[in-house]
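Protocol step 6 of 9: fold each sequence in the batch and record its structure tokens directly after the sequence line. For illustration, a two-sequence batch is reproduced in full.

Sequence one:
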Amino acid sequence: MSTSPTTRTEYDHDVVIVGGGPAGCSAGVFTAREGLDTAVFDRGRSSIQRCAHLENYLGFPEGADIETFYDLIHDHAETAGCTVVPDLVESVDRPDDDAADGFVITSQESEPVTARRVIAATRYDGEYLRGLDSNEAMFETCDHDNEADDRFDRDYPDADGSTPVEGLYVASPAGKPDKQAILAAGRGARVGKRVVADARIDDGWWESVAAGVDWVRQQSELDDEWAERANWVEWFDDFYGEAAPVDPDSDRFERVRETYIDDRFDGYLTDAEIDRRAEEAHETLADHLDPEAIVAAVDTDQLLAAIDDDAIRAYRDDDQQSGLDAQ
């Protein structure tokens, strides 16, 4: 939600995520919503595609078929601002200049791209990261489909996905308990938030204020006291000023404070905006569903009531216009 995201123009992307399953897309939603230029490389080889039916993911009482779920998480990532690249990453390397930071990402079919940060979100086959650190530290060899496969060592990344390699994060499920898709998505979100915080720190923020919160509230909750910007300024100075590693009178402190407060105000929605978003969310979800299933699930009277005269006229007008355009 930040209005002044960190962007390093010398890179093609701020963040490249390798793997477009639940972990990768979840991380991408957080980084892209912050305004970080995020590309998700995915060849459709996510381990979730070996699942016959998704049953334990919250929000799907009867479960979800894998194809629909995969389409939904990619749609969510793209709506947040990610670019989903249907390509297989072959290697992630440091630039030729040893003094340079960032990474060069080489894939099978696309031109190499550069990124300030990379999130590894593939459960199997970490071959593309070889050479960035000690192989013994990064990987453990496991049997997968009767073949030896390099999986990330569960002890290699920190709890937030950070690794000893600056700019490299691991969002892959760590350990046997994390085979559930919902746990993978939660880990991806945690790593995405860590990347956002690190990007903010690069932009002059400090740790205690960089983590932030990406959520929205009802405008009605913004009472008279907190509707005044001066009160937010006073609160920020009291809460963060004393422990801040920068002078509270400095331009840097003021810039971070103003951006932080802007984010807070942007997080309050009017009733009209809440209704608009709810309607748009329902329409987007319906686009991914089988129309026959929608008709079967909805009460006939409700369905007929929803198809009012105005809707019928609009449909006929659109259909007639489409016919004219085709001539």
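Sequence two, same batch, same settings:
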Amino acid sequence: MKNYLIDTHAHLDMGVNDDNDYLDGVGKVIIPSVEEQTMDKVIGLAQVPNIYAMVGIFPSEAKTYTQEIEDRMIERAKNEKVVAVGEIGLDYYWDKSFNDIQQDVFAKQIKMANKLNLPIVVHDREAHKDTFDIIKEVNKGSRVLFHCFSGSVEFMKECTREGWSIALGGVVTFKNAVKMKDVAREVPLDKLVLETDAPYLTPVPFRGKPNKPAYVKYVAEEIAKIRNMPVEEIIDITTTNAEEFFKI
């Protein structure tokens, strides 16, 4: 029985490691990358036990993507603490004017992950169909994790039927997050992992304050409550899933 949590997505490079207790109860943390200029910082933070890194260009940064940046990401991925390509994907919420560029860069990074034999961690905001279709068409063997899943139960089932995994975070604790609570109730347990997305999406009871990995326990507690399961069982299952997905 695993007695520690894994935060599969925390932006430690954004100052969420300032508190002494920021890892309280958390055994391992994975830091995503969002832009090239902070990638070395992310990998540097991972050069300690039980902290790991990803390399990837966030959808909003797709216009910055070049072959040279991809080559540098491939070189960085040789570091043994780099365990995934992420966070990559599509975000149609803020600006739809360059969706085509986002799609192209997403596909390129999936292909890169395939070559590197690394999993992909996917950011999908208001782009469910295109995200699904691109992964289905382009991905040739990389494991897939939907970070901060925001789709319906039906979309979750489509994803898990493909063998893809689902990460749930603080939103599931929000009182009005009915859709995410339904997903938490229905998601196959063998496809579920936990995250914070710190410093964002802080769970109840600390909503409105900066998030940190230690708060992932509130996500575990809420899912256990929703599914009428012991929280220790949720911790054991999600920790095991995360270790197997990222090979850590």
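Proceed to step 7 once all outputs are recorded. Observation for sequence two: The mean pLDDT is 96.
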